[in-house]
Amino acid sequence: MKTFKASVNNTDHFEISNENIQNLDVVPTKANTFHILKNNQSFNAEIIEKDFNNKTYAVKVNNTVYNVAIADYLYQLIKDMGFEVGASKHVNDIKAPMPGLILDISVSQGQEVKENDTLLILEAMKMENVLTSPRDGVIKTISVAKGDAVDKNQLLIEFE
Hints:
Elements: E1 3-8, E2 12-17, H1 18-22, E3 25-30, E4 33-38, E5 41-51, E6 56-61, E7 64-71, H2 73-80, E8 93-95, E9 100-105, E10 112-113, E11 118-124, E12 127-132, E13 137-142, E14 149-150, E15 155-159
Antiparallel strand pairs: 1-2, 1-7, 3-4, 4-5, 5-6, 6-7, 8-15, 9-11, 9-14, 10-13, 11-12, 13-15
């Protein structure tokens, strides 16, 4: 049975099963708005904010707003293993993924880069491979130059 962990306003914590969800009497009334019947009591609910990456939602129930965080089984397993889904990336250097030739370097030392910005182009096996930044940061050092031949796992760029 799949379960989800939910917390409301970071104070109340619940474990919810698929069975609990299927037993809810919920009727969508319009986009992001629902009518819920629970223990013969009527509730109007509206999802007013959603952040799918962080699995957080702001839900207004009968004019009171609740901040809800939901974690499914896989998310919980990954967190228990010491990883965080969507957590900031702590990559501090870029190494050559394969032997090749540096065709172009798009950054310079001290330059600020954003995640997915092009750092350099590595030619390997007659293919151009664009290496991009794994995170926002500042270039600390560039250990290669245009035209250099590099080996697999050779240090190319370091971040501050």
